[in-house]
Design a protein that fits this description.
Elements lengths: L6 E12 L3 E10 L2 E10 L5 E7 L15 H9 L3 E5 L19 H17 L4 E11 L1 H12 L6 E5 L6 H9 L6 H9 L6 H6 L13 E6 L7 H13 L4 E6 L10 H16 L1
Parallel strand pairs: 4-5, 4-6, 6-7, 7-8, 8-9
Antiparallel strand pairs: 1-2, 2-3, 3-5
Length: 280
């Protein structure tokens, strides 16, 4: 929050695919001195089109390939007239490495999403409306979106998250890393202390602490049968936003799991309606 964030030098590389509605490019951009890779779907036509930055969920960087994650959303959103920039994040695919990212609670991913928005703006491309930019994040990427909303209020116009992680980082560690005996947990606690040893630190790295800073409307999708990211996490985040007087909507999907299968079309209809209302 105290840092000046920089994002620039959005470069379109090779064409990865052409469809009847859009062209997909490999891209790179600069994020606070690191080069970040990704993909961008650009709708056919002159535009200018509103743009969305997509923040994917956790995929082991050792097996991750560029643009992986949110494939359904990438396609559907571009077919509905949105430029879609899907960031790989640092330490993924063709991006530069940041060896301290994991011990620093992956806050570098938040920097990369902020930088993606700034890079879209600085690109000054006539087919992109740089005043109409939104965010969409899934699972871990939902947490990245929460962070972005509190770190950089006013940066974007609106945001949507699917099945997001907890807004309390220590709960994510307990849910995903500690059960697997991930050695990074010991490194994190050596650097920052445990929540019992250093409660101030853990309070300060939770976006819930700064929800009063949020200025953008937020839509949260969550399935009641999600056993990866419990819906109680989204209920608590929604309550915190509401208590602060923020524009937040939680849509619950009875029986839906973490991956959104049978009710994905309905959730995307709601997402498109939400984005159209705030970005058109």
């Amino acid at each position: 929050m105290q840092r000046e964030h920089r994002g620039s030098d959005l470069r379109l590389g090779a064409v990865r695919a052409r469809t009847d509605a859009y062209t997909q490019y490999a891209v790179t951009y600069e994020s606070n001195g690191l080069t970040i890779s990704g993909i961008m779907n650009v709708p056919d036509g002159d535009g200018p089109f509103p743009a969305l930055v997509l923040a994917h969920g956790y995929i082991d960087p050792a097996v991750y390939t560029t643009g992986r994650g949110l494939a359904r959303e990438q396609d559907l959103l571009a077919r509905n007239g949105y430029v879609v920039l899907h960031t790989d994040y640092r330490n993924h695919a063709g991006s530069d490495d940041d060896p301290d990212n994991d011990v620093n609670l992956r806050l570098g991913y938040t920097e990369d999403v902020i930088a993606a928005v700034l890079a879209l703006r600085s690109a000054a491309r006539p087919n992109i409306d740089d005043e109409r930019i939104g965010l969409l994040g899934r699972s871990m990427g939902g947490g990245v979106v929460y962070n972005t909303l509190v770190v950089a209020p006013g940066l974007i116009a609106t945001a949507v998250v699917f099945a997001p992680v907890s807004a309390r980082p220590e709960e994510n560690i307990d849910q995903f890393q500690r059960p697997d005996r991930d050695p990074i947990v010991g490194e994190i606690e050596a650097a920052h202390g445990t929540p019992e040893e250093n409660p101030a630190f853990w309070r300060q790295v939770s976006p819930l602490t700064y929800v009063d800073r949020v200025t953008e409307p937020l839509l949260i999708h969550h399935g009641t049968a999600d056993d990866t990211c419990p819906i109680a996490w989204s209920e608590r985040t929604t309550a915190a936003f509401e208590a602060a007087g923020k524009d937040v909507t939680l849509r619950k999907y009875r029986g839906e799991g973490h991956t959104f299968a049978p009710q994905w079309p309905a959730s995307m209809d709601a997402t498109l309606s939400f984005f159209d209302r705030h970005l058109r």
